[in-house]
Amino acid sequence: MNDNIQNNIEKSEIEAKFVCPDELDLDSLLEIINKLGFKYIQGTPCLQSDVYLDTPDYKLNKSDAAIRIRRRGENYVGAFKTSGRQQGAIFKRREVEWTLSAEEIKLWNEDKKPTIPLAVVNELDIEVQTLRKVLVVETNRNTVIIDSSDGLRAELALDDVSFRGHKGQKQYREIEVELLDGQFEQFQHLTNALQGHFKLQPAVDSKYRKGMMLVGKYGV
């Protein structure tokens, strides 16, 4: 069990989430970002694979929390997220992240035994051995770092998502905009502008809850 405090990063995450229409692509988003007067730098597209875990009675899903193990390239990162306040399409969530060591990665890949920080286990009041894989989420992600002259920095991600669970596989597209630096009001102005121009619908559920609603609750 990972109880090395230095290996665990806790932060508050402020982001807006929208359902992405099938016809909307990254170039269209970038065109509007440019017209709004922002500078941007495109990141390298990546594929990330998330495995979500829950107890047999779905304690995390019922409490709007989530534990996942994410693989991106050769790196494996665990995360524990809890719900926070919501203002329109903007969410504020608490997140704890930890990086798996080579030994922990081997344990996860061979035996599917997750490494969860002791602080998270104690907070949830769960037994690690009861956690099981309930949802797999494969995401093709395109990211853009957005900067403004008045100090706003945000990351926009366009996600093409595949959920895999008990009821099969479902596709989903989502836009996430996360505040990296600057004032909340600046961030709100950006997200409101994008939402208004493209008539975007807020994504009111986390990817975990969305996936569970689409493909079921009985393990994979």
Overview of the structural elements:
There is one protein chain. This protein has 220 residues and is of the alpha+beta class. The protein is built from six helices and eleven strands. The chain has helices spanning 26-35, 59-62, 102-111, 118-124, 184-198, 207-215, and strands at residues 8-19, 39-42, 46-54, 65-72, 75-82, 86-87, 90-99, 132-147, 153-165, 168-181, 201-202. It has an eight-stranded antiparallel β-barrel.
Topology:
Elements: E1 8-19, H1 26-35, E2 39-42, E3 46-54, H2 59-62, E4 65-72, E5 75-82, E6 86-87, E7 90-99, H3 102-111, H4 118-124, E8 132-147, E9 153-165, E10 168-181, H5 184-198, E11 201-202, H6 207-215
Antiparallel strand pairs: 1-7, 1-10, 1-11, 2-8, 3-4, 3-8, 4-5, 5-7, 6-7, 8-9, 9-10
Briefly, what is this?
With 220 residues, the chain is of the alpha+beta class.
> What's the story with the biggest beta sheet?
8 strands, antiparallel, barrel
- Inertia-based shape: globular
Helical content, roughly? 25-40%
Strand coverage percent: 35-45%
Number of strands: 11
Spatial order of the strands forming the largest sheet:
1-7-5-4-3-8-9-10
Average residue-wise pLDDT: 92
Structural class: alpha+beta
How many helical elements?
6
| First-to-last CA distance | 24 Å
Tell me which oligomeric state these chains represent.
single chain
Taking pLDDT < 50 over at least 5 consecutive residues as the criterion, the unreliable ranges are 1-6
Instruction: Give me the Rg, rounded.
Output: 18 Å
Taken in chain order, the helices and strands follow as EHEEHEEEEHHEEEHEH
